[in-house]
Design goal:
mainly alpha; elongated; about 190 residues
Length: about 190
């Protein structure tokens, strides 16, 4: 059972619309290394995890990733609400997205490819899945690093830094479990 608190993990208060930033940040919503894939990866892996403490870790991080998905969706929404036609026309990357989704939040990569479950790894083997999780957290961190290189609005930068820091914490938590897991198979 979960208790849902109706507030984001980190406040999102973007004042200036920016379709270019939205078309980049959307990748962490539905891109191959984004929050949707991470949450479903961990919440799916937990079913075949034979160790209760690792099952709990996968559940905890999977649910937190859903909170991150909510943060990214909020950012994209705030960046695209109240756009003028000129702002849309002046951003061809967003204009194509707008044609298909208006200013709705749709799970897609910045490249335009829609989210697919094929981008997540769920093997059912403790060591294989934990290594997949370690790699996934690093790929998400790199994506956040890339976003930080491309945006300059502090209203965007601060929540992205928060999310990047959480990827590092998740990587460390998964890393802490790997030696213990490997001993179980020795």
């Amino acid at each position: 059972m979960f208790s849902y608190v109706k507030r984001l993990q980190y406040p999102i208060n973007i004042k200036n619309p920016d379709p270019k930033a939205a078309s980049i940040i959307i990748s962490q919503y539905g891109g191959p290394d984004g929050e949707l894939g991470a949450s479903l990866r961990y919440l799916s892996q937990r079913y075949s995890m034979p160790y209760p403490e690792l099952k709990g870790l996968l559940t905890d991080i999977g649910v937190e990733e859903l909170g991150h998905l909510e943060m990214i969706g909020t950012m994209v929404h705030q960046l695209t609400r109240n756009l003028t036609e000129k702002q849309i026309e002046d951003n061809p990357g967003f204009a194509a997205y707008f044609v298909d989704h208006t200013n709705s939040v749709y799970p897609t990569a910045a490249s335009g490819f829609p989210w697919s479950a094929a981008s997540i790894g769920v093997k059912g083997d403790t060591i294989a899945d934990l290594n997949e999780d370690l790699a996934a957290e690093q790929k998400a961190r790199v994506t956040y690093d890339n976003i930080l290189r491309l945006v300059d609005d502090p209203d965007i930068i601060e929540p992205i830094k928060f999310l990047r820091a959480r990827e590092i914490v998740h990587y460390q938590r998964f890393g802490d479990t790997l030696p213990q897991s490997c001993k179980l198979f020795a």
